[in-house]
Structures are given as C-alpha cells and as structure tokens.
Design goal:
Elements lengths: L2 E9 L5 E8 L10 E6 L16 E2 L7 E8 L5 E7 L2 E7 L10 E4 L10 E5 L5 E7 L4 E6 L11 E5 L12 E4 L5 E7 L2 E6 L12 E4 L11 E4 L5 E7 L2 E6 L12 E4 L8 E7 L5 E7 L7 E7 L5 E4 L17 E7 L5 E6 L6 E6 L7 E6 L5
Antiparallel strand pairs: 1-2, 2-3, 3-4, 5-6, 6-7, 7-8, 9-10, 10-11, 11-12, 13-14, 14-15, 15-16, 17-18, 18-19, 19-20, 21-22, 22-23, 23-24, 25-26, 26-27, 27-28
C-alpha cells in the first residue's frame, strides 16, 4: 500500500484546507512511484468531518529523494509549497486566479549538506515568500527570498551559526510573525530554545541569536511550536522530559520574555509528548500533546486556555476510539489548523498508510471533538 512520508496543510483562496504530502511505495506496493500528492477539502454538511477528495492527485515527481515538505497561503490567496529533492529546494505554487499549480522550480541549495534536511516557508509582511533551511554541519539556518510577483529568488544567506556544543538539528525551524510584521525563527539546542528575528518588518537584517533558556537546565528541551495569542503576543510551547511548558512575550513584539510556566506536569506512563498548537475563533489557544507511552497505546492530551493565564487539561478521547485500533494503530506529525467554519482540526499521519487521521471540533470554540480518518485512493 502506498504511504505518506510527511505532509503539510494550509487554506486555499476559498478558505478550504489543502493537504500536500510526500508519498511513495509502501511495504505492499514497491512499484508505486515517489512523488508529491495533493488532497483538497470539499464544502459539505457541517457534520461531515472527512469532507476531502476521495483520491490523491499528483503534483509531479521532483527528481531525487524527497523530504522536508512545507506549504503556506500567499497574500493573494494562492498556495506555495516547497520540498527538498536530493539537497535541492524545489518550489511550486498554486495560482489564486484559476487554481492551477505550476511546475517545480528550484532556488538551489543553501550549502553543501546531505540529501535530506528540513525546510519551512513564511511570508514577509510585504508578501515576499521566504524559505528557511537547516544545515546540520555547524549547525545554522539559511534563508532565501523570492522577489514580488513570483520573481526570481535571491541567493541563500545565513542567519549565523547558533550556539550549541555538538548540536544536531533534524527538524525545520519554527517560524512566527510578530504583530509589527517581523519574522522570528526558533530552534531547540540541548536544554535551551534559541531565537533570532528581523531587525524590522521585511528586513534582510536579523538580530544575533539569543537564548530563551529552557524549563530545566539539566534536561533537553523539545522542539518549540509558537503561535500568537489574542492580543498579538507570541507564546512558545515546548516539552521538558514529559511535562509541557510555555513562555510568552510580555507585550506584542517585546521582550524580555516572561518566565517558563508548566501547563501540565510529568506522568510516569504518559510518554514524551509531541506538540501542536493553534488559535480558536475566539482567540483562546489550544495545545495538543501526542504521547506514546513505552509499550502502551498512544493518547492525545488537550490543553486549552480558558483565560489569560488559566489553562485546563483533558484527554478528550475515550479508550475505544480509532486511535490505537487497526485503522490507526499509531499516528505522528500532528498539525493543528482552522477550517473554513472556524473549527480547529488536528491532522496526523498514519505510518505505513496513505490515510490521514482527523480530530475536529464539533463547532468553533467548542469542547466536543469528533475523530475520524480519511484514506483517499492513490493517484
């Protein structure tokens, strides 16, 4: 059976969600070619939680070993996607006017690196597309900017080597935008979170790397996820051992950041969580922690903001749900986004499958979530 290796989700010009995925041969279908797949949400009844195309569509097969997919919506409503093919960053875009996808082009490779390295996309305040890539040698972050109107790409520039003795980075940097338009980049190195930001909106000048520390100086910190809260302050979420922690700006775009706050403590059988964060329609934040206990069944823990500094936690899924059954024995790569109705939707990959796991709010801002999975046929 063909399987998804990694995926990304973004809204199109109609506010419908689209999934782009790297897919290829599975254990039972070695002849299936590797390529980039596309699946689009359809308008349907409010209670149809799997309203996506029944079939994956092909976005072509960039030549080489594929890895590191990312997608964002542009300021004109079009979509932009990047993958890595044997060390080259490949870019394709979907027109906002007629909804057609371009062919794949490349801004080149940032530095001599391995055939696989993570990338991520963001937009400057003025609409210029920016791609960020990790080089694991030193390590450091490289970026390239596309000129307005889908113009040529600038050459790759380094954001500098970030501190960390013997650090190895295998994930795409976390990107967030301040309320004033400045982009920020975050990475986890050892026991600390490091970040840098643009000197001003749209600028190619970046500040020096600075540390936001970590919850525990003796324990590694997990990979950060960052979102803006209701008043525009950036809030960072990360794990330390099995606990979930948060740190935020004192005011939009300003520092020094407030101290670390534990949102949920450790549990011996809970497992090290992987986080996904999003903003509800009313501005309150939600964080999902996907935990995989050793020798146990996975669990999804929901941490929900109920006031400015007050959070509640719950395991929203009963034990007889799809998660942990033959339909979805395990999941990974959690992504949390809002759909065209304003409901948050959690997407996860089902390893070894061409399917996607969904967890959807029954209504915007609600506490009832409905789970399902969708397994489109291969292109």
């Amino acid at each position: 059976m063909p399987q998804i290796d990694s995926f990304a989700v973004a809204k199109d010009r109609n506010d419908l969600l689209e999934i782009v995925a790297i897919g290829g041969p599975g254990p039972d279908d070695q002849e299936f070619p590797e390529g980039v797949w596309l699946n689009q949400q359809l308008i349907g009844p409010d209670d149809d939680y799997t309203n996506f195309d029944d079939k994956w569509r092909s976005l072509g097969e960039p030549i080489g070993k594929l890895s590191g997919i990312s997608m964002v919506r542009g300021p004109d409503g079009g979509l932009e996607a990047v993958v890595v093919a044997d060390g080259l960053v490949m870019h394709a875009s979907k027109s906002a006017s007629d909804g057609t996808w371009s062919g794949w082009e490349t801004p080149g490779h940032p530095v001599l690196t391995g055939p696989e390295f993570p990338v991520t996309l963001a937009h400057n305040q003025d609409g210029r597309l920016e791609v960020f890539a990790v080089s694991g040698f030193k390590p450091e972050i490289w970026h390239s900017t596309q000129q307005p109107g889908h113009g040529p790409w600038d050459g790759w520039r380094s954001l500098g080597v970030f501190p960390g003795q013997g650090a190895t980075v295998h994930r795409a940097p976390a990107i967030a935008r301040n309320k004033d338009g400045r982009l920020e980049v975050y990475v986890a190195v050892g026991t600390e979170i490091w970040h840098t930001c643009q000197a001003s909106a749209n600028s190619d000048h970046w500040t020096a790397w600075s540390s936001l520390g970590g919850p525990d100086a003796d324990r590694p910190v997990g990979w950060p996820t960052v979102v803006a809260d209701q008043d525009g302050r950036l809030q960072l979420f990360a794990t330390s051992d099995r606990a979930v922690w948060s740190r935020r700006q004192p005011a939009p775009g300003l520092g020094p950041w407030e101290g670390w706050t534990m949102l949920h403590g450790e549990s011996e059988d809970a497992g090290e969580p992987v986080l996904a964060a999003g903003t509800q329609q009313d501005g309150r934040l939600v964080v999902f922690a996907l935990r995989t206990p050793r020798g146990g069944v996975q669990g999804l823990q929901k941490l929900e903001q109920i006031a400015d500094e007050a959070w509640t936690s719950a395991y929203p899924l009963p034990p007889d749900t799809l998660l942990g059954t033959p339909a979805a024995p395990t999941v990974d790569n959690p992504v949390l986004v809002a759909d065209y109705l304003g409901r948050l939707r959690l997407f996860c990959r089902i390893p070894g499958s061409r399917g996607i796991y969904f967890l959807t709010q029954a209504q915007p801002n609600g506490r009832t979530w409905v789970e399902a999975f969708h397994q489109p046929i291969a292109p």
